[in-house]
Amino acid sequence: MLHYISTRDQSATEKTFEDVVLDGLAPDGGLYVPTGCPLIDPDELKSLQNVPYIGVAHRVILPFVEGCIESDELYQLLERAYKDFQHQDIAPLVELKDNLYLLELFHGPTLAFKDMALQFLGQMFDHVLHKQNRKLTIVGATSGDTGSAAIEACKDKGSLDVFMLHPHGRVTDVQRRQMTTVLSDNIYNIAIEGSFDDCQDLVKAMFNDAEFRQEMQLSAVNSINWGRIVAQVAYYVFAYLKLSAMTGAEKVAFAVPTGNFGNIYAGYIASSMGVPTEKLLIGTNSNDILFRFLQTGCMQTNGVVPTLSPSMDIQISSNFERVLFDLMGRDAEALTGTMIYFRTKGPFSLDTNIMSRLRELFSASRFDDDQTMEMIKTLYTDTRYTADPHSIIGVGAAEDYLKTHPDTPVISMATAHPAKFPEAIMKSTGTFPDLPPHLADLHEREERMTVLPNDLDAVKNFIRKEKS
Ligand SMILES: *Cc1c(COP(=O)(O)O)cnc(C)c1O
């Protein structure tokens, strides 16, 4: 049976799937990884070719949750997680042009790929908490693009309350409404009179207050949670199976618009499980720490600039630590040293052997906002396909790769529906992307939120009051 260890725990204390899902981040600041990687052999892969999404996801996820969740329970959780998706394939594979495919991951309730993982994580939390007869309070901050996915994932779950902070008046109408029109009793939207950074500071302060944290049983659903990663591995396997069923392809490359490295890390796991993967292609916007790292071998932060693809505006890619852990021979002591050096002193470089192994697995492309707009327009003109400013960066990375590897099919991850970013789409294609039918009345729906000052006590008192 698989267990989990923290990348920074030198004693390699083994935890269960339940522990790591509820913990999120390990107490030592490291990330949880499984003690081994389950395999799917080529014959079994072939036998899965025409299995629907839920069946594939079940096969992929089961070995990671064994001992905590029964096989038929897992199946039910998956059915519930993906029942509100608007496409029968859950994640349909679309052919764009010769050897270039898109996996559309945006058919969930909030129109972005976060739903693929969070809808599953919400079910998982609820299941585990009921089993343990516990309740948690999820607290988070959002600049607008990711809060709604967490809210949709947790709404109506009896074991969870969600307090989501966003900067008052500084998110778009669509972003706010995707959060505030969820009227479930366990969802609290708080608009803070301040910036996104203020919201994040408030959340950090609550987590750092040990007494409050304990009293309220605070938890988070952030992108380093293993429960999210494992749900994402499923669609890499599914995409490969679809492609090989359609074209007989034996190998594939994956292109991924990358921020925190959660999505592409799942591709790395799928590849380790047996999906024949030629290359994992990282696409970044101007926040290009990984691009620079692969180019120069030096990991160095550079601040964050706002771009047209806000969900990829990151300073460091947290999940990258998990790959580093493997490449450093799972040496927790060496990895901890490197990570602490990076946080406290600054830039670090790695051994040339590690760098060459890394470059065998990954390559990276970078696109600024002008290139992003240009690529959206060109793709639309050539194919009539509208890609959002995140998805197009994957397409750009895929096209870069195809220049030198024209015979390897590339599946690029489409991470958001174009209607989430209407201004950029309108400007580059001249066409307004409509919201899909299930959200068409978003602007008429009733909203509920509470405006609070940028004041820690005010927020804590609000949470205490609502919980009592
Ligand atoms: C979160 C997000 C990304 C980045 O994914 P990571 O797992 O952080 O690399 C890309 N596109 C969209 C639309 C997102 O919401």
Indicate the topology.
Blueprint lengths: L3 E3 L10 H7 L8 E3 L7 H6 L5 H13 L5 H11 L11 E5 L2 E5 L9 H19 L3 E6 L5 H8 L5 E8 L5 H8 L6 E7 L2 H13 L1 H7 L1 E2 L6 H22 L4 E6 L4 H12 L3 E8 L4 H8 L1 E2 L20 H8 L4 H13 L3 E2 L2 H10 E5 L2 H15 L7 H14 L5 E5 L7 H8 L20 E4 L2 H12 L1
Parallel strand pairs: 4-14, 5-6, 5-8, 6-7, 7-15, 9-10, 9-14, 10-13
Antiparallel strand pairs: 1-2, 3-4, 11-12
Pyridoxal-5'-phosphate (PLP) binds next to α11.
Structure description:
This protein has 468 residues and is an alpha/beta fold. Helix 6 (147-154) links the parallel strand 5 (136-141) and strand 6 (160-167). The radius of gyration is 21 Å and the shape is globular. The chain has a domain at 93-111 and 226-429: Rossmann fold (3-Layer(aba) Sandwich), CATH 3.40.50.1100. The chain has helices at residues 17-23, 42-47, 53-65, 71-81, 114-132, 147-154, 173-180, 196-208, 210-216, 226-247, 262-273, 289-296, 320-327, 332-344, 352-361, 369-383, 391-404, 422-429, 456-467, and strands at residues 4-6, 32-34, 93-97, 100-104, 136-141, 160-167, 187-193, 218-219, 252-257, 277-284, 298-299, 348-349, 362-366, 410-414, 450-453. The chain has a six-stranded mixed β-sheet with strand order 3-4-14-9-10-13, sandwiched between helices. Strands 8-5-6-7-15 form a five-stranded parallel β-sheet, sandwiched between helices. Pyridoxal-5'-phosphate binds at residues 112-114, 145-146, 223, 257-263, 311-312, 390, 415-416.
